[in-house]
Amino acid sequence: MRFLFKTDYEDDIRLFPHSGYYVSYGLLLAVLLIAPYVLSSYLMSQLVFVCIYATVGVALLILTGFTGQASLGHAAFLAIGAYTAAYLQKYGVPFPVYFLAAGLLTGLIGALVGFPALRLQGIYLVIATISFAFIVEEILARWESVTNGNEGMRVKAVSLFGVAVSRDSPTFYFLCLAVLVLTIVGTLNLLRSPTGRAFVAIRDSETAARSMGVNVALYKVKSFAISAAITGFAGVLFAHKLSFISPEMFTLQLSIEFIIVILIGGTFSLHGAVLGAIFIVMIDPFLTYLKDDMPGIIAGIAATFGAGTQAAANVQSKVAAFASLNGLKGAIYGIIIVLFVLFEPLGLYGRWLKIKLFFQLFPLYKRATFKRQKIYVKSERNR
Amino acid sequence: MSYFRAESLSLHFGGLKAVDAVSFAVEKGEILSIIGPNGAGKSSIFNLISRIYRPTSGRIFFEDQDITEQPPHDIARLGIARTFQNIELFENATVLSNLLVGRHRHSTTQLWQELLFLPGVRADEKVHRRRVEQVIEFLDLEPYRDKLISGLPYGVRKVIELARALCSEPKLILLDEPSSGLNVEETDDMSFWIRDLKSELGVTVLMVEHDMALVNRVSDRVIALNYGRVLAMGSPAEVQEHPDVVAAYLGA
Questions:
Q1: Is the bond into A363 cis (omega within 30 degrees of 0)?
Q2: A271 close to A349: Cβ distance less than 8 angstroms
Q3: DSSP secondary-structure letter at A39?
């Protein structure tokens, strides 16, 4: 185990606590940079989605993980970013301009959503953000002169310095990766400055934050605006990756997927957003694989246990029918959330920390190390 | 003119008069204690000063400025810090970041500067960090710097709350029952620190306290309250011998 001997205040401020991090993150970056020349085009495409989902995950972490304001409306912010990009692109606005415009507009709308949210907490805030998402979905479907309604909009390839960047090219992947890395660095910077600490203060005790001079309303709105703006940036990339957008892509299910990203990744660290994004992007092909291959496999097992050809075929068709049930995916997502909240509340990143600590302390690891202790009940009087 | 002044301050919840026309003044550099039985309105007065509640009537002045209508977060900006009776710390953060939130009123950096973590922000952070370190040294909190609050014992949390209030470099500090839940030894430490606040840091202290030994040891003056009204005001000995105060506590 490494012991850090701090000799300077800088040691508490720097992003990486010790030089070992430069090696591990450097390696990770190197792998990510050579990935497009090694991986198949399918995996590259998945990796681009991981970048986009992780960016939204970081945005949601700022709002939900660090400021403590739940949101089920992030699909709507993503949609606003995507549609702004598609609309401006139609009029020949260059990529950097509409990229920034989409982020700014989404941030502004995020701030507007933040105002009514000042008076709402917990489940009521969730309901308010869901209604916002439905309103946006409805506007996208009805405002046909701008959004083309349910017909959807085509999005042309990104044009950087006059060169068209195909959505499957390594350059587009690098663009998404750069946005993700910049988002993460910016967020880390924010978290080690007064604003980030004010966010955490609001999450843990609004009364105390107020009495320490934090303008709670202002910082909640700021949190909403920052979170929405980042999601707007991600929305532009999302639109380009899909090359076609329509209102039914930005439904409640997408918002729930974003919540899954941070719940499964872990809500206390930015690592969680990336791990959760990998999880959510990879679970879809995995479920498809199960759906396609499971009926055959189960029928095979049935046959080896002595079922006749007729019975095995019967089993295969029953399982296949079950696997293609409507809403099965939603149910599986629901089960995943419940299981994680019950058994792994710290998420995948929490699990990783536990495994790391287990080996660092071997054989002295205590199972209760990460158990949360409730020593006394906090007063609810001042709320 | 007094340093801090409350003028016929009232707080009514419907028919209940939690605080009823209370007037008092705090002189610069003194330690003033508010005592009284449960429900006398002591904490309510604190919550009125830090604007958790809005007074039904009456005015509050600090350094000759009327602060009755100030929003809650501006009270801290003026230099009034407080602690809470039932600790209100940021549970899932480290001691260090808790204390750094105390520095919030001194932060001057803008959001865009923080996103880029410009040299100015870094320099500011180091100043904050140095001030926090002075408070950590003052209150002997060195062993806990990087610990999460949620894993710390009650007595330590109580000290961290005081530390967080001190990090804002207050002119006036409101201590809501600084000794509640502490053992004898910790209460002793607390009483030394409260005296040091006055003598070393020059902070004016207004405190609510039940432990009469602590009150006697540190206070310059004492106010006794009951049913939201002032019963007596004066030196600790005078107030404790006042017949109304004796009646209030013993029910005679």
A1: yes
A2: yes
A3: S
Q: What is the distance of C-alpha A327 from the center of its chain?
A: 22
> Which of A12, A212, A373 faces B101 most closely, judged by CB atoms?
A212
Q: Do residues A98 and A85 touch, judged by C-beta distance below 8 A?
A: yes
Quote the CA–CA distance of B190 and B182 in Å, as a whole number: 9
Q: How far is B225 from chain A (nearest CA, A)?
A: 21
Contact B97/A194, CB-based, under 8 Å?
no
* Chain A touched by B137 (CB under 8 Å): no
The tens digit of pLDDT for each residue in A307-329 reads: 778 888 888 888 888 888 878 88
- The Cα A292–Cα A107 span in angstroms is 41
Q: Token pair for residue A155?
A: 């999005």
Which member of B85, B121, B150 has the closest CB to residue A372? B150
Three-state DSSP state, B41? coil
Contacts across the A-B interface (CB distance below 8 Å): 131
pLDDT value at position A3?
76
Distance CA A293, CA A295 (A): 6
* pLDDT tens-digit series, residues B112-160: 999 999 999 999 999 999 999 999 999 999 999 989 998 898 999 999 9
Show the tokens assigned to A292.
């396609």
Q: Give the ranges where A61-193 is alpha helix by DSSP (H).
A: 74-90, 95-117, 122-142, 144-147, 170-191
Place of tokens 């190390």: A369
In A, minimum Cα distance to B114 occurs at: A190
Nearby residues of A266 by Cβ (< 8 Å), 6 or more positions away: A272, A275, A276, A346, A347, A348, A349, A350
| Nearest-by-CA chain A residue for B170 | A212
pTM score, whole prediction: 0.90
Token code pair at residue A107 = 């941030």
Whether the CB of B38 is below 8 Å from some CB of chain A: the reply is no
Residue A375 banded pLDDT, cuts 50, 70, 90:
very low
Instruction: Say which of B72, B88, B168 has its CB closest to residue A205.
Output: B88
Task: Please name the residue of chain A whose CA is at the shortest distance from the CA of residue B82.
Answer: A211
> CA-CA distance, A202 to A206, in Å (whole number)?
5
C-alpha neighbours within 13 Å on the C-beta side of residue A44: 19
Which residues have CB under 8 Å from B55's CB, separation 6+? B9, B10, B11, B19, B48, B68
